Amino acid sequence: MRRLTSPLTRLHLRTLLRRCISSSATNQSHHLPCSQFSLSKTHLFTSPLPHDPFSFSLYCTSFKPFSSQSEDPVKDQEETIAQSLSSELVKELDAESLSIPERLDLSFSHITLTPSLILTTLNLSPDAGRTVLGFFKWVKSKESFNLDDEVLALFVDYFGRRKDFKAANDVLTDGRGVTGFKTFESMVDRLVRAGRATQAVAFFENMEKDYGLVRDLNSLKLVVSRLCEHGFASYAEKMVKNLANEFFPDEYVCDMLIRGWCVDGKLDEAQRLAGEMCRGGFEIGTAAYNAILDCVCKLCRKKDPFRLQSEAENVLVEMEENGVPRDVETFNVLITNLCKIRKTEDAMNLFYRMGEWGCSPDETTFLTLIKSLYQAARIGEGDEMIDRMKSAGFGDALDKKAYYEFLKILCGIERTDHAMTVFAKMKEDGHKPGLKTYDLLMGKLVAHNRVDKANALYKEAENNGLPVEPKAYMVHPRYAKKKSTAMKKEKKRETLPEKMARKRTKLKKIRLSFVKKPRKMQRRAY
């Protein structure tokens, strides 16, 4: 029987051919000028052998020079295999076609599976749906691959993103005996994020019987924390009270419950629960007070921003009375809320007083203040805060995302020149700008009628290999060049008759203005 040629063989041949050409070109590069070394698209797509199975034009739509290829061939090969697997999963199945495991066995029986390869394949197949169950069965059937808790968590997370919890349940059932804490964490997280708090509580109650998972205090803490983070504090509190005889709550669980009510915006419930815990002998920690402080600030911002500082001061006084120390998170809550109501000066004063309580600013403090200073058009102080952040050892937090937020604020307040300065600083720090960054700056430069700089950025993005496309940006009317108005007509010199007529009219008006109106004679009655 003739064996079918797999698509992977062609991909391997393509990779080998690239390596051979690149190695031969490297060996002969000192004999060839640059113009001879580079290949053009015309040569590739006008090949004399269009049906040659080894031709590049059959497999790639765009050509990249060999010098710009990735330095990690293993990673490139893994991505190629993942794309082939993804295309196989997305294919539409006919009634007579083979099942997914059989099809994958035909084409990919010789590959080596790894967790990273499986993760890449799942990320490339968001529309595969229930076909991924066949992929899971094929992975499970591979004897050379050890199915563990980490791989199961990847499949559970994939179906959880699609809110297909029936398929996730099938994965957990098939993986019984292999499932562990990572799979449990992924399932609980996806259930809660989908708004299914009741199912999350039921999953915790039946985890030992249905899936063979260990139910202990750590798993209870995980469920409580996920429920409280997403505003399901009532479910979490009820579950903790029902299981108090089996798992006695500690201070962490109590703090998480208070935080859950605060996330939900119910300050009365949080204070009620804090009072019950104090009467029960629990000590409320700094984390719970920080949650209460944040809830108070948010409610004040929503209803009466002028009361924010006084209400926050009451919470801080209560902390001091109960002997609860402040930490950096306390100051971050205050600084963030002050910056959101545009009280940047008060936030800066609080920043300089952090040392009085033995606290040092962290990356969140610096990033919040930098954005607030830029928003207040205090450009110099914002730049100084960036330098101060780097000298404090938090330079790693100035990543591509942070710089993009800075640029967005500066473009929003029409400080385009300084945005270009921060953009240059971003590249100096070794961060490669993305497509959104270039699009933001090009749009703002064109709006300011600086088309030359926008075109330079477009060419720079093209050289960096980004898929930029020409767009029609609008020039703001304020910066558009005004059309030259028609020249005013020059005044002609008056002739003598015109001049005399104008003078007569003027004198007549002056003369009439001094004429006295006659008084009416009043008759006397005799």
Automatic annotation (TrEMBL):
GO terms for cellular component: mitochondrion; nucleus. It holds the Pfam family PPR. The keyword Repeat applies. InterPro entries: Mito_RNA-Proc/Resp, PPR_rpt, TPR-like_helical_dom_sf. PROSITE patterns: PPR. GO terms for molecular function: mRNA binding. Keywords: Repeat. Gene3D superfamilies: Tetratricopeptide repeat domain. Belongs to the PPR family. P subfamily. This is Small ribosomal subunit protein mL104 (RPPR9). The lineage of its organism: Eukaryota, Viridiplantae, Streptophyta, Embryophyta, Tracheophyta.
